[in-house]
Design a protein that fits this description.
The protein is mostly helical and about 475 residues long. The chain has 18 helices and two strands. α3 packs across α4, α4 packs antiparallel against α16 and α11 packs across α14. The longest helix has about 40 residues. The two termini are about 45 Å apart.
Length: about 475
């Protein structure tokens, strides 16, 4: 339990970073607070995501090959804490007196740095999970803790952001000082959670896998990398991420626009919706494990994701059909209930698919002879970051197409503009989400195949250990002694 808690606590940093780097926050902040054009913002976020996606596999490979007395993962985890705090504070505290163009260059540069610092922690931390346990169902439990703390961290900070820093008393949703204070708190919380997690799992370092010293040619390294990221089940998950990245980037970038301008929801109400997400993290964790055991990981994941997609589409569908309630209290109730159910289903699905990705580690190792958890998990996140950036870019395109006013005060945008935006957004978002689920059907690793992979690797490790012992025996009269 102490290991699960320690490992999970580190995901508070991931959750806070997910909020701080989400297009739902960055798009309106850079567009409506800093004053950069929507197309500039969408393009900048897309390019920073793509750069991050390219560098992530390098961090994963570095982490896999690292040999220190503190293991492969922990040195990078410890180093990331102060770097994340400094980059986060700098990003959200750009000088207000600078011209918009100068400010834009500064915040985009800090955004790139912040994403890299987050990856420096997130990739080694994620790679630690399959090392801590090889048990098929224990991995689902471990990722349940990871997702629980991640969601609580992100949504909890979301509540603080809208209830405290962006509350009407503090200056409202476009208050630049509120974002600056949020950045200071977020940086401190992320650094603290990383240090707690690294210290809590530090005692396991001696029992974790240590890569052997190998002198191999570059061609062999390239072959191993291709063998790892070319694993069929991983490729399926990566293609799914390609589609879901577009949907996630698009919906994330436009969510605040819909809440405030289409539904007329206040900043305080947005924080209440986030609270529903915190509760959903509890129910999502409760659903994931039993669903995976009863239905199997793949079937459970597919079912949960499909239900989540259709549930998420309900409010906008009702609004476009003029069936949504007009009363503000009923609107908030609809959004709260829908968000709770959809988030519960989505979190359960993400917990299970994360466990499924961890199972690819042994499957790839059987084929390549090398364990590459960091590279594998970084590669899995590569395409979603590319396409997530594309989704954010598309949000800028859609805002431009519907002529969304950049400097309009919150709650004053023409309802017809928001209706046109919803009409374009809903079919694109739902279609890409369903496509991302459909491409997961060829995933092949079930419980029996995982057990076979673990047994194969254990046998290979035993053979290698016997060979090492034989080589180490002293030689007497030209023959090995007994």
């Amino acid at each position: 339990m102490s290991t699960k808690l320690s490992y999970g606590v580190g995901s508070i940093a991931v959750g806070v970073a997910t909020l701080g780097l989400s297009s739902s926050l960055l798009q309106p902040y850079l567009n409506r607070v800093i004053g950069l054009p929507a197309m500039w913002v969408g393009t900048a976020i897309m390019l920073t995501l793509m750069l991050d996606a390219v560098i992530d596999p390098a961090i994963g490979q570095w982490s896999d090959k690292l040999r220190t007395r503190w293991g492969r993962r922990h040195p990078l985890m410890y180093a990331s804490a102060p770097l994340i705090a400094a980059a986060c504070i700098a990003f959200w505290n750009s000088p207000a007196t600078w011209p918009p163009a100068t400010t834009g260059v500064f915040v985009i540069g800090m955004l790139v740095l912040l994403r890299l610092c987050v990856s420096l922690y997130e990739i080694p931390s994620a790679a630690l999970a399959p090392e801590l346990t090889s048990d098929y169902h224990q991995r689902t439990t471990l990722f349940s803790y990871r997702f629980f703390f991640g969601v609580v961290g992100g949504l909890g900070m979301n509540v603080v952001l809208y209830q405290v820093f962006l509350s009407p008393a503090a200056g409202g949703i476009l208050n630049r000082t509120g974002y600056a204070n949020f950045g200071i708190l977020a940086g401190g919380v992320m650094a603290a959670s990383i240090i707690v997690s690294a210290l809590g799992t530090h005692r396991h370092i001696k029992g974790l896998y240590q890569p052997p010293v190998r002198q191999v040619p570059l061609s062999q390294v390239v072959k191993e990398v291709i063998g790892t990221i070319g694993n069929r089940s991983l490729v399926v998950v990566m293609i799914s991420g390609l589609c879901s990245g577009v949907a996630g980037g698009l919906s994330g970038a436009l969510s605040q626009y819909f809440y405030i301008e289409l539904w007329g929801v206040s900043a305080a109400s947005i924080s209440f919706i986030s609270m529903a997400g915190v509760l959903a993290s509890v129910s999502g964790v409760a659903v994931a494990g039993p669903a995976a055991r009863i239905w199997g990981k793949k079937r459970a994941m597919l079912t949960l994701f499909v239900c989540s997609v259709f549930t998420s589409a309900v409010p906008l569908s009702l609004k476009l059909l003029n069936l949504a309630p007009a009363d503000s209290g009923m609107v908030l109730t609809l959004l709260l209930v829908d968000y709770f159910i959809a988030t519960t289903l989505a979190i359960s699905g993400f917990i299970i698919i994360s466990s499924m990705i961890a199972d690819v580690v042994e499957d790839a190792a059987v084929k390549t002879g090398v364990r590459s958890e960091g590279l594998l998990l970084a590669a899995n996140g590569l395409l979603p970051k590319f396409t997530g950036g594309i989704g954010v870019f598309l949000s800028g395109v859609l805002l431009t197409v519907v002529a969304f006013p950049t400097h309009a005060a919150a709650g004053t945008v023409d309802p017809e503009i928001m209706r046109r935006l919803a009409l374009i957004f809903l079919p694109i978002n739902t279609g890409m989400s369903l496509l991302s689920i459909a491409v997961l059907l060829p995933y092949k690793i079930d419980e029996s195949r995982h057990a076979s992979n673990v047994a194969t690797l254990a046998a290979a490790a035993a053979v290698a250990e016997r060979a090492r012992i034989e080589e180490a025996r002293p030689v007497v009269d030209g023959a090995s002694s007994i």
